[in-house]
Specification:
This protein is of the alpha+beta class. The chain is built from ten helices and twelve strands. Helix 1 (about 70-80) runs parallel beside helix 2 and helix 2 crosses helix 3. Bound molecules: cytidine-5'-monophosphate.
Amino acid sequence: MTSYVEVLAPGKVNLALRVGSARSDGFHPLNTIFLALNIADTVTVRAVENTEITIDCDDEDVSTGEDNIVYQAAMLLREHTGVEKGAHIEITKRIPIAGGMAGGSADGAAALVGLNELWGLGLGDIELSELGADLGSDVPFALLGGCAVGTSRGEDLRPITCSQDLTFVMVRSDEGLSTPQVFAAYDKLHEGAHEPASVLELEEALRLGEVPVIAPLLVNDLEEAAFSLRPDLAELKADLEKVAPTVILSGSGPTMAVLAGDDANSLEATIDAAGLDSFRATGPVPGARIIEVG
Ligand code: C5P
């Protein structure tokens, strides 16, 4: 009998995030290009004798209650399959919390993958992705990984080719940003019905894999909204642009992504020397995947 399953759950950056006006359900239609990055949380699910779902996390800022997305993932799987098992779920955080890199979604995706294996449910990728979409808009991509165009609220995915690995120096912020608040700020700044802009040009550039063509096409429509809530981020972006030309907000922020050219080492050293909290991340990498079963 399987006693534990360990799953690696990658974070992401949106290489392009084009936003339309809110739909009647409150979500915003997107044209986005996701890139899965090699910064990953680890989620380990362990068999227990009872039907309880319990959670441990090495970061005390993460709730271990019923509001944690891994708890919701477990409940969703139980509802969907009728299985009545419990699990103890351990989360090791490496992806910034509330950072715009889909750390929570990655954990949710990993819990779906891990529990599917631990409980012997035999659900396929499509079924897991559909359940993932119920957990959150970014969860299907956290399952899929690689590079993909996302439409609708981001859950409708089409894998694309990214011929060139892209490396970013990601700059953390002390405080997180709330995604709903950033979208609400976007609505204030962009009144009137509008469709999200196209990402086809970037899709083609990624297929060709030439960084000088890709770099100027990186774009995030949520930047202005995030900066309206956190003016310090606009200053940070301006400072980072003095070091490297391509700087974008990651997702709904506040993490900033600085595209590294050939010399990621010296870029990282310069950003470090400025006293900023940063780490390096490269993509594409695969989505949530099992790394150990015992
Ligand atoms: O799907 P998820 O639960 O991650 O979304 C969190 C919140 O982000 C939503 O409640 C909504 O306010 C906002 N959101 C949005 N449009 C999207 C995705 C998220 O408005 N496409």
